[in-house]
């Protein structure tokens, strides 16, 4: 008999993860020594500014100067890495029976909890 009569579910139950858009090479950190940023600027002065920003942020990049008319800067990758915020650490909330953090002297569960 054929599989047509006993078919349950999809024929290809496991979808290929490469074709569906998952990031398969997550260890490629942009701005590292192995994967430097490729940036384009319009003047030598701007190139020196960008190189100073790269050195300050401890990133690696290849900065090229494009002096043609109508040339545009391409530093979006650097801007994204510099604007990335650090991890926010929140103070631990006191337990129910500990003194309240507002300084009232009451237990946390009776005051602010």
From TrEMBL:
<protein>
    <submittedName>
        <fullName>Zinc chelation protein SecC</fullName>
    </submittedName>
</protein>
<dbReference type="InterPro" id="IPR026368">
    <property type="entry name" value="SWIM_PBPRA1643"/>
</dbReference>
<dbReference type="InterPro" id="IPR004027">
    <property type="entry name" value="SEC_C_motif"/>
</dbReference>
<dbReference type="Pfam" id="PF02810">
    <property type="entry name" value="SEC-C"/>
</dbReference>
